[in-house]
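hey can u check if this looks right to u? its 80 residues, i copy pasted from the old doc so theres a chance i mangled smth
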Amino acid sequence: MSQQDKQSEVARLRAQIEQEYAACLWALRGLAAGMAQHLFIQRRFRQMDRAHKGLMQLIGEEQATAILCEVFDSKQEKTE
């Protein structure tokens, strides 16, 4: 995999994590309630986990986790 391909894949996986986490935050504040809300959020976190594992394969655990934390922090700041 070329360096450019690797960077593109990292960007794609980061964007996926951002979208999944945004969906989780929406679900927490949205109209869904109870089990439907729980299942929706659970699916989103599974998708984030898959993306995180993909990042770990590309850039290592430490950098992948740093990206995950950056996404969580940036989204949290926007909702406060």
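The CA atoms of residues 10 and 59 lie 8 Å apart.
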